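On clarity, I found the account of how folds are encoded harder to follow than it need be. Since the whole study asks how a given chain folds, the encoding of that fold should be made plain. For the editor and my fellow referees, an illustration may be useful. An entry of this sort, consisting of the sequence and the corresponding backbone structure tokens, reads as follows:

:::
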Amino acid sequence: MEIKISLDEYADVDFIKKLLSQIKGINAIEISENEKTYSWNGLENSEYFGKVMEQSENDYKSGKTQELTDDLLNEIFSEK
């Protein structure tokens, strides 16, 4: 089964990918732009992703974290 999500140019794609990757049952994330598709595996194995993960780990160690609440998740995924 697949779900297609259309984003505007100002969407926080990194946050959306991170959020979706933590949901049980999601086994792949692909990003496409202008008919070009990026696979999650390709992104995950890239040098850029390694740098982002390193920065995220450093932010966590220094106390720069943000916890998502159930209310926020419900607001993001609720039907409108």
About this structure: The chain has a mean pLDDT of 78.
